[in-house]
Structure formats: C-alpha cells, structure tokens
From TrEMBL:
Gene3D superfamilies: MFS general substrate transporter like domains (1.20.1250.20)
Residue ranges of domain Major facilitator superfamily (MFS) profile in the record: 17-458
Localization (cell): Cell membrane
Topology within the bilayer: Multi-pass membrane protein
Name by which UniProt lists this protein: MFS transporter
Organism lineage: Bacteria, Bacillati, Actinomycetota, Actinomycetes, Micrococcales
Alphabetized PANTHER family for the sequence: COMD, MAJOR FACILITATOR SUPERFAMILY
Keywords: Membrane, Transmembrane, Transmembrane helix
Primary location group: membrane
Residue stretches spanning the membrane: 53-71, 83-102, 108-127, 139-163, 169-189, 201-220, 226-248, 269-295, 301-326, 362-386, 407-425, 431-450
Taxonomic source organism: Microbacterium aquimaris
Top-level lineage group: Bacteria
Amino acid sequence: MGDDTATARLTPRSAVAIAGLVLATAGTALPLSMAAPTLSAQADRYGTTTADTTWVLTATLIVATVSAPVIARLGDNHSPRRVLLSILPVIALGLFLAGTATGLTQLILARALQGLSGGVLPLALSLTQRIVPPGRRTLWVGILASAFASGTALGAVLAGVLVDAYGTPALAWVPLIIVVTAQIVLVASLPSTPTAGSRRLYLRASLALGAGGVALLLAITEGSKLPYPCATVPLLIVTGLLALAGWARTQYRRDTPLWNRASLRRRSALIAAHIMALLGGAALFGMFVSLPAFVEAPDGLNLSIVIGGALLLPATAAIAAVGPLAGLLRRGLGRRGTALLGAITATAGASLQWIAPHEIPVLLAGSTLLGAGVAVTFAAALTVSIELASADDVAGASAPNIVARQLGGALGAGTAGAVIALASSSTRFDTAFGIITILAAGVVVAAVGLPRHLSRVRSTE
C-alpha cells in the first residue's frame, strides 16, 4: 500500500492495481450500452422482433439497478477485493454465453448476468480509497468515473461498427477480452483489504431502491409494448416513485447500506449530488440517441450511420480526457465551483445543438462540450458521495449515485427515442434537443445546492 500522505506516490504494485480497476470499470461498462443501437440486428439474427429483443437491454438495466447497492454493501462488509474478484468471472461468463448464444432466451439470461457490472464501479471506488494516497484520491475518482462514462458511451459508438464488421457476437467478445485481462491484472496486483465485519445488508432498503428503479425502467423502455399502456405506464411510474419515496424515507430513519447516519446530517449535499447524476445521465444519453438519429434521418442531415456514430467520438474522448481534471479543478474552484463549471459547460453544448444551425461543426462542438461538462459533474457528484462516507462505507455510499446515473441514462434515452419516434412532427429533433438542454440546465440548479465546505465522515457505526 502506498504512503498515506498527501504527497505520496503510488507504489508500482498499486499503480498496476489501479490500471486493472480502470480496465475492469471500462470493460464492464461497454456492454451496458452496446445492445441499444443493435436491437434490430439482434432481431434479425434470432428470427424475432425488435420489440422482443428490447429485453436484451432491459434485463441488463434491471439487474444493474437491483444488484448495485447489494454488491456494494457486500464489498463494504466482506472486502471489496474479494467481492470484485468474485463477480468479474460471473460477468465474464455472461459475456461468453452472449457470444455463443443460439437463441434469444439464452442471450437475455446472459445479458442479465452482465447486469452485475453495476456493482463494479462502487467496488473500484472503495479499493481506490484504500490503495491510493489521500492527496491523489480525487484524481483517481475522476479517472474511474470517466472510465465508466466513456466506456458506456464508447459502447454505443462501437456497437454498429462491430456488428457490421464481425456480427453480433463481437458485442460480447470485445468486452470479454477486456474483463478477463482486468481479472488477471487484479488477481496479481490487488493487495488484501480489511473487512468491516459482518453487518446487516438491509435488503429491504436495497429492494425498495431496486423496485422503484425497475418500475421506472419498465415504464420507459417497455411502456409502448405493455398491455393497455395508457393505464399501465402511469401505474408503473407512480409505483416506482412511491417505492423510491419509501426508500428515501428509510435513509432518514435508520442506517442503511447506502450511507451511514452521520452523513445524513448533510443530506442536502447528497440529494444535490444524486440529482446531478440523474439529470446528467439523462442529458448525455438523450444526446447519444438524438444526435445520430438526426444525422441519419431524411428530415435531418440524411447522412450515413457511420457519420452519425463518428460524431459521438469527440464527446466520448472529451469524457475520457476531462473527467480526471475534476480533481485538479477543485483545488482552484472548490467543490461547488467545479460542479457548476461542468454543468454550465454541458448546458452550453446542449444549447448549441438546439439553437444554433444544425451543421456538422456546430453539432460536433455541442456534443464535445456536453460530454466534457457531464464528465466533470459526474466526478464531482461521486466525490461528494464518497466524502460523506467513512472508509468502510465507500462502496455503499457511491452505489445510489451510480444507480441514479443509470436511471437517468435510461430516462434520457427513452424520452429522446419517444420524441424522435413522432415521425409526423416536423419539430421532433428540435424538441429532443430542447429537452436535453433543459435537463442540462437542471444539473446547474442541482450544482448550486452543493455546500462550499464539506467535512468527511470519519466514524463508522
């Protein structure tokens, strides 16, 4: 383990371990978004309908939403190293089964196993707090947050290219290689980590969070295909909101797997951080759906799918490059200033795509600014969640923020897709870009809610 001073450098073994954590985070994030752009290709391969293949995506999102807080709490209880090295092979098995799937049912089950990827980032963040010197932790939180966000974004970009070149099995083989490599690196380099001892999992609170997220995800991703959607979708939304409200109520009444009581004294900061993650995820994935659709549509630019995907690459690169800078920016701008800078940058990028002429240079600039700004806010939101946790609760404290980001991504993608599907509307793309701008502006409002000063919770219960 590295020296525990603000100026200490990583030991060679710790540096290799961090590289393995980045690989694991990016590799497990890739499959989370690869299914969305290739549903029609999957339907053709298995001789079914696109409506049926949407469960390939929905199964992953549901498992990720339900399992992330439980996996995080298990890591806090029984060593994040042990839990991470246990779930990576299960995720790899899911990828292998997806690559060899001979039917849609096997593919859906395989993708469900891949949903355990939602627990990888909380465990990686917890391990980072244990093997990285304090003065460098914020930097590596930003790097891991960017690895997750850029991995998810890159999955959407690469999916079409891989399917065109190698077929749908390539969607599994590429991340499988990365995950297996990460497992080998981490087995060799991760130091042992102490455990906090056996504590309650509080499964009721975790299931309430998962049930609320699942209900909202079903309303977003499957609403149009459910029986009597006019009644079913509002019912799912109300059910999801009630479940989430019940979960939130438990956070004020007892210790849970999601953060400890001491951190609730600063619950306004947590609420602001989670809203930032939710709205930032919605804005980013709304853009990742809307921009390629506009580029390819006859009433848009009417260009090829290759160009549509290429326009997302600068945003993905910006996410990877700028997220790690959040820690450096914070030294000069402070917590709130850094979050506001990211949120304002994202809003400026979204506004360019909405208001300015819809030309390729403008669209590129807008997507790059949006990606860069959201990356900074993601890192800032995660840092707040981690600072409010004791050293033994980092994984559990960061899990709700990551779940909020995933739910936001599904919300943004689903909303943008629904708006664009209104083919009879001549303003469908302007409406989609306008919604994305409003979501990004909401991140600015949430960032204002972050306190200027925030002391870390030191004690555990």
